[in-house]
């Protein structure tokens, strides 16, 4: 059965008028009443297709969840006990801690100071999410970007922020300086 598109109906009517010359409205209505069954069947086919698509979508989402569980087990973040319960491993607890710091944006206390602080970092590409977290946090602390990995501001670095850097294992990649003489930086 040929599917009739929106423009297809208009085309059919115009072609009929072209071929038959003058054509009455009654004739056109009779034509479409006869084809009503085809339109109804087509709409039912579309409805069934949409229902199937929804079922497929639900199935894919369920499969994605099972794949995630498999990956977490394989990477050693979770284990399954004898009674089929899932537990976090030590590695999983560390991952959860780092994710909670990255995902939940903390509001660090901002304390203005008279001298500038310079934050320089070189975080590897495979730690991109942590690097992005650091940049977003520095912006929240009113630091200005001098270069992509060099930031300067007149806000005291909060102790909680330093603890989060340690928890994320970023301390070796970050250097924090107190600037006593500005030079060309303003």
Strand content: 15-25%
Question: Share of helix among residues?
Answer: 40-55%
Class of secondary structure makeup: alpha+beta
The beta-strand count equals 6
Major β-sheet strand ordering: 4-5-3-6
> Element order, helices and strands?
HHEEHEHEEHE
The biggest sheet, with number of strands, parallel, antiparallel or mixed sense and barrel status, is:
4 strands, antiparallel
Radius of gyration, in Å, reads 32 Å
On the 0 to 100 scale, the average pLDDT is: 78
Query: What's the CATH class of the largest domain, please?
Result: Alpha Beta
- Shape descriptor reads elongated
Q: How many individual domains?
A: 3
CATH topology description of the largest domain: Alpha-Beta Plaits
> End-to-end distance, in Å?
74 Å
CATH architecture of the largest domain: 2-Layer Sandwich
SS field, number of helical segments: 5
Spans of at least 5 consecutive residues with low confidence: none
Task: Please specify the SSE layout and strand pairing.
Layout: H1 6-20, H2 25-74, E1 78-80, E2 86-88, H3 90-103, E3 112-121, H4 128-140, E4 144-147, E5 150-155, H5 159-167, E6 174-178
Antiparallel strand pairs: 1-2, 3-5, 3-6, 4-5
